[in-house]
Amino acid sequence: MADTDTGTPRERYRAQVRAEVKRHAWEQLAAAGASALSLNAIAKRMGMSGPALYRYFAGRDELITELVRDAYRSLADTLRETAAAEPGLPALAHALRDWALRDPHRYFLVYGTPVPGYHAPDDITSLAREIMATLLDACAALPPNVPAPSPAGSGTPFDSHLAEHRQWAGDHPAAPAALHRAVVLWTRLHGVLSLELAGHFTGMGFDPALLFASELDALAGPVAH
Amino acid sequence: MADTDTGTPRERYRAQVRAEVKRHAWEQLAAAGASALSLNAIAKRMGMSGPALYRYFAGRDELITELVRDAYRSLADTLRETAAAEPGLPALAHALRDWALRDPHRYFLVYGTPVPGYHAPDDITSLAREIMATLLDACAALPPNVPAPSPAGSGTPFDSHLAEHRQWAGDHPAAPAALHRAVVLWTRLHGVLSLELAGHFTGMGFDPALLFASELDALAGPVAH
DNA sequence: CGTGATGAGTTACAACTTATAACGAACGCG
DNA sequence: CGCGTTCGTTATAAGTTGTAACTCATCACG
Q1: What is the distance between the alpha carbons of residues A186 and B79, in angstroms, rounded to a whole number?
Q2: How many A×B Cβ pairs under 8 Å?
Q3: Residue-wise pLDDT tens digits, A175-188
Q4: Å from B54 to nearest chain A CA?
Q5: What is the pLDDT of residues A7-20, one digit of tens each?
Q6: What's the distance, CA A175 to chain centroid?
Q7: Beta carbons of A189 and A212 less than 8 angstroms apart
Q8: Domains in chain B, start-ordered, CATH in brackets?
């Protein structure tokens, strides 16, 4: 959120209105998804008439971009704080799952079907990198006795490929196995979460939470819980 | 596709027009995604004026439902034919990946962010079950010496949970480890595919195809390729 | 403390969209 | 061959995003 108590009175007011627009946007988004987001409806709920919002957002795209940015920031903050408070992969994974279940539409805003003409600005890709860095930190700090993500162990073809293409990890001094673990932690947990949130498990009978826990255990090593 | 050469001339014409509408819909969908699908634009491209399409589809929702149905059917057919022609998990997985890459928007129509008010009709859930059945068949036919999906081996808590909640598998006589393998085959490959198609790997440096192959190897057992 | 620029909010409008209603014309079945 | 079903049309309603022009409050500055 932008500062709401700094700058000139005009800037303060502007920040407040922008914040309130986003508040209503989140409500509308949580209720009916991104495609149902209507500037007109938000304006009417705030007691103003349609075009007034164009003083605050250049259009629907800018509002959505802002929401995506806030969602990324929220996830990055949540993971970082969790990693600081309770180290280890399980805490991180469950923080991710809780964050996703708290507001599924927000998760889909980040990791769901991309909107047609949308290209993420630079600051969003840096937030995405921060998320991956948090996962990678946790994977690098893992004791060396947990099993590798692939049954074949370390030194798989993908391990060496990752070791040579690690710019996504910045200059993180992680072993290839840690890089591999971080990537598949991401993709596997996302695989379970996205299908669960989209409702593809309903009617199948099993408990998605147990599947999530099973996938987590396969990567974090079995721990007491 | 509905039969285009049976029934009365009226029914034939009707089926042809419906098919052509869907053809244009797929073009528009592949170009700009589901949210950009416009009945008006389709009508104009076909040389008729807007409301004419309502003779053929009750509305946008029914058209999209029909496209989702066709997408499911196409995937189910592709997987079934692949399984018949070349048994084994690798062929199945690569058929899935090829199908997804051929038309990413079609993949998202099936496994992407759900549309707000949409509930899948029964015949679509049965197509989804057919897809899972194909995966499960391939997993059940696997030689018993491939490593289990979890490092802890068979008999994990989730294995027994799945053994007790297997209605999604119908009355398939698969071992718990096969059920587990089929589910995680689905979720892990979807995890990689959906993030790849959404562009979340661009700029990270590594090759998504190798990650996909790595995840597949971890489930199918290392094979020559 | 006034005065003037800045900016907020308003209405009006254009160009879209989905969807319904009413009408004429064409088609095909008996 | 005629009559009814159905198709395609236009007109209309109720939305949407977004721009333009105008009013008026507010804020800053001399």
Answers
A1: 26
A2: 165
A3: 999 999 999 999 99
A4: 22
A5: 787 889 999 999 99
A6: 25
A7: yes
A8: 1-57 (no CATH), 65-220 (1.10.357.10)
